[in-house]
Write a structure and sequence with these properties.
Helix content is 33%, strand content 24%. The chain is α/β, with parallel strands linked by helices. It is globular and about 50 Å long. Bound molecules: iron/sulfur cluster.
């Protein structure tokens, strides 16, 4: 039976991307194949002994279960947290990188789907084969393309293109985190990856929440980067992380 290491399960407001403001139940998987300089979920990249689970949705009180969890254990937790069907708009699979757990997700998602209106996948867009193995159970894909200037990661545009080619079978948008170091050239390169696949895919520019030596882009720079993207794609929005503003988890 497949198992997965999970950092936390909690109810909150989606603070990023095109479904910002919706109530989501988040499952934060452990581990990531990247190491971004601005990562705000570093704790999830190692494996905690216990998964912390919100006792009831929105209570802010937690219980702890020993990692790893198997599918029946997780389903019993989710059935409790999702019992008020009207409350959550989606279950958000996040991390870390949830697609590192594709084998587990293939077992979990067919059972989870009847409990939720939407399965929402947050991913760094670098594991196309894993996406292909579970896409039939996913409704929305929030796909990052990492810009080297901010993330400190080498570009993976070919892999990103391959990933997006699979993701367009579902509702999908691409998110680029931008910072003070982002250049117009690299932004155009990333926007072209999207346009090469399907120019109707929405692009979200997300000004970084400053961390360490990664500084926020200047207001005028945001407008310039937006203008560069708009030359390549028709649907470009600037959306910061709103959960940081409102103090949500
Ligand atoms: S892909 Fe996401 S979880 Fe992984 S290191 Fe980058 S920001 Fe952190």
């Amino acid at each position: 039976m497949a198992t997965a290491n999970i950092a936390e399960i909690f109810s909150s407001i989606q603070g990023e991307g095109l479904r910002v403001g919706e109530r989501h139940l988040f499952i934060r998987f452990c581990g990531c194949n990247l190491d971004c300089r601005y990562c705000d979920t570093r704790a999830a990249r190692s494996v905690p002994t216990d998964c912390r689970i919100e006792k009831s949705s929105g209570s802010g009180a937690f219980v702890f279960r020993r990692n790893p969890l198997d599918v029946p254990q997780l389903m019993s937790v989710l059935a409790d947290l999702l019992h008020r069907k009207e409350l959550h708009d989606a279950v958000a699979l996040t991390g870390g990188e949830p697609l590192l757990h594709a084998v587990f997700l293939r077992e979990l998602l067919p059972q989870l789907r009847p409990l939720t209106r939407r399965v929402y996948l947050e991913t760094n867009g670098t594991l196309p084969e894993e996406l292909a193995s579970i896409i039939e159970y996913v409704d929305t894909i929030a796909m990052d393309i990492k810009l080297p200037s901010c993330s400190g990661q080498p570009p993976q545009y070919e892999t990103n293109r391959k990933f997006l080619n699979i993701a367009v079978a579902r509702e999908v948008f691409v998110k680029l985190v931008i910072c003070a170091a982002t250049t117009e050239k690299e932004l155009a390169e990333a926007a072209r990856v999207v346009a090469d696949v399907n120019s109707e895919v929405p692009l979200v520019l997300q000004p970084v929440t400053p961390v360490g030596d990664v500084a926020a882009p200047r207001p005028v720079q945001i407008l310039r980067l937006h203008a560069v993207a708009k030359k390549i794609l028709p649907n470009v929005r600037v959306i910061p992380q709103t959960h940081k503003i409102t103090g949500q988890l």
